[in-house]
Design goal:
The structure is a single chain. The protein has 455 residues and is α+β, with helices and mostly antiparallel strands. It has twelve helices and 13 strands. Helix 5 (142-189) runs parallel beside helix 6.
């Protein structure tokens, strides 16, 4: 669930980033628009500049007024009478009292927004076209301003924490829903069956997961029935074959052992016996492979001396050969390996070693040298089987190293059993030198290095 919590945290962080990004973008847009409007409505010259120009030259002052698009302008003396004017409407050509001057200097003069500037030559009044300027002075006492600022501060803080709370609540609700979905998926991956409530928000996903669970359940049941039928069929066929096979072996032994039999008949009887033994071994391999594949073969774990099992398997294979001289076997077991015991199934390990050596013999009918080397590496027991024959085919090497099954026509029953036995006993199997070497390395968990105390 750590990944799910990371998703939840990323959701919250992303939400805040988006909110802050939105606020920053709005501020930038507002600043750009305000600056553009301000620049468009900005006066070319201020009232102070026009006043200074009039003091020097009236024509220069009038030029400034034209650039400002002023509606009119007038210069009042101390009595409030116009002493100079520019495009002054007739309705405004009169003297003004102090109250009138105080009024239009803050607001409007006959609906004309005005700006004023006064100095020693008089009071300059510049009027702008009606509706072109918003000309109101805002008056507010400091307590009111402080109250507004306090309200805005608290409002922003409450809004901010309210947004955080909304994000957390909404995110947690979806987190709980997604957590249920991920738990269901994990349960499906482990082979279980789930049924999610098809509520709003995740209804479609829940329906899909429920349908998938039902479908997987049906498939598991069908596979179990098929595997059970397969196992029963293999057991039945094996049982049915054993009886006639035993008769064939018995008759072949009887014919082969009769005195005075001609060499040709004896050779044929020997061939029948040998092939019958081979068929019996194949049947045993088939049964064992089926049991190992479906975990029907219980492991009889006990301390096993690998060196002893290795020698017994090699002796068994050599004693079963008709021409052992064409299969010279060289075993090199290091002294440290002699005292190695592992927790394993002795009979299965014996069968695995026997299959490996039998594989070298069976695929090299003309004979080859066989090597066995056992040693301790990094505190773990290792065994290497190698020969100078044909070696293991590439497809089977890929199966042993990577678990990739070859084409159905490739026969790998013996080495498939070896792989399952070794891995079932906590070991690993690898190939080397283009299939001419087979390495078995047993896990540290099953490793028990005990010196023999027998004398």
């Amino acid at each position: 669930m750590k990944s799910l919590m990371r998703i939840y945290v990323r959701y919250i962080v992303t939400a805040f980033i988006l909110v802050f990004a939105f606020i920053i973008i709005q501020i930038v847009i507002l600043s750009a628009v305000t600056r553009t409007v301000y620049q468009q409505g900005k006066e070319e010259h201020s009232v102070k500049e026009v006043y200074a120009a009039l003091r020097k030259d009236q024509k220069e002052g009038e030029a400034y007024l034209r650039e400002m698009n002023a509606a009119f302008a007038m210069l009042l003396n101390e009595e409030g009478c116009p002493v100079w004017s520019y495009n002054l409407p007739e309705s405004l050509e009169h003297s003004y009292s102090i109250n009138q001057v105080a009024s239009f200097s803050r607001w409007y003069l006959a609906d004309y927004p005005v700006s004023v500037w006064g100095d020693e030559i008089g009071l300059l009044v510049i009027g702008y076209p009606k509706g072109s300027v918003w000309n109101y002075y805002i008056h507010q006492d400091m307590k009111g301003v402080e109250g507004v600022l306090t309200f805005l501060s608290w409002s922003m803080a409450v809004t901010f924490f309210g947004c955080i709370l909304i994000f957390l609540v909404c995110g947690f609700r979806y987190y709980r829903r997604i957590k249920g979905i991920t738990s269901a998926i994990d349960q499906l991956a482990e082979g279980g069956t789930v049924h999610l409530a098809e509520s709003k928000g995740i209804k479609e996903i829940a329906c899909s997961i429920n349908r998938t669970s039902d479908r997987l359940k049906r498939q598991r049941m069908e596979l179990e029935r098929r595997d059970e039928a397969r196992t029963e069929w293999i057991s039945g066929v094996s049982h049915d074959i054993r009886t006639p096979l035993s008769l064939i072996l018995g008759y072949a032994d009887m014919i082969e052992g009769q005195p005075g039999i001609d060499p040709d008949s004896k050779r044929r009887a020997e061939g029948i016996r040998r092939q019958s033994i081979r068929i019996r071994k194949l049947i045993e391999d088939l049964n064992l492979a089926s049991k190992l594949e479906y975990h029907m073969q219980p492991l009889r774990l006990k301390p096993v001396a690998l060196a002893s099992v290795l020698r017994s398997a090699a002796a068994e294979v050599l004693n079963s050969l008709e021409k052992p001289e064409i299969f010279p076997l060289q075993a090199e077991i290091e002294p440290d390996f002699e005292g190695v015991f592992i927790q394993g199934d002795e009979q299965l390990l014996f069968r695995a070693f026997q299959n490996i050596l039998g594989n070298s013999v069976g695929h090299n009918q003309q004979g080859c040298r066989i090597f066995i080397r056992a040693w301790i590496q990094e505190g773990r027991p290792e065994i290497c089987f190698s020969d100078e024959g044909k070696g293991i085919p590439e497809d089977i090497c890929r199966f042993l190293d990577e678990g990739l099954l070859p084409e159905p026509k490739v026969h790998l029953m013996g080495l498939k059993i070896v792989k399952r036995i070794v891995e079932g006993n906590g070991g690993q199997i690898k190939t080397g030198k283009n299939g001419h070497e087979l390495f078995l390395r047993f896990s540290l968990e099953n490793f028990d290095n005990r010196r023999r105390t027998e004398r």
